[in-house]
Amino acid sequence: MPIYEYQCKACGHQMEALQRMSDAPLTDCPACEQAELSKKISAAGFRLKGGGWYETDFKTGSKKNLAGDAGKSNKDKPAAAGTVKAS
Predict the structure, then answer these.
(1) Radius of gyration of the chain from Cα atoms?
(2) Tens digits of residue pLDDT in 20-32
(3) Whole-angstrom Cα distance, residue 9 to residue 78?
(4) Where are the domains of the chain?
(5) Taking a C-beta distance cutoff of 8 angstroms, is the pair 23, 39 a contact?
């Protein structure tokens, strides 16, 4: 379940709520008890890094974007067919 952030327009109270995606947004502020809560837009609190299903499972051959390949430069990679590699 995602964590949503809310802010009250009346008193400025900020809070987080663990809710299902299908749940209706909260409206009542627990601090001032007015129906002035609004959902805030925020970034996810984590980033998936490294090798894993999300990075490798649906890609084939040279399309795989492995974490260990990030440090390689273009000169280390083979030239595409029909192109000339400058020295």
Answers:
(1) 24
(2) 989 999 999 999 9
(3) 57
(4) 3-39
(5) no
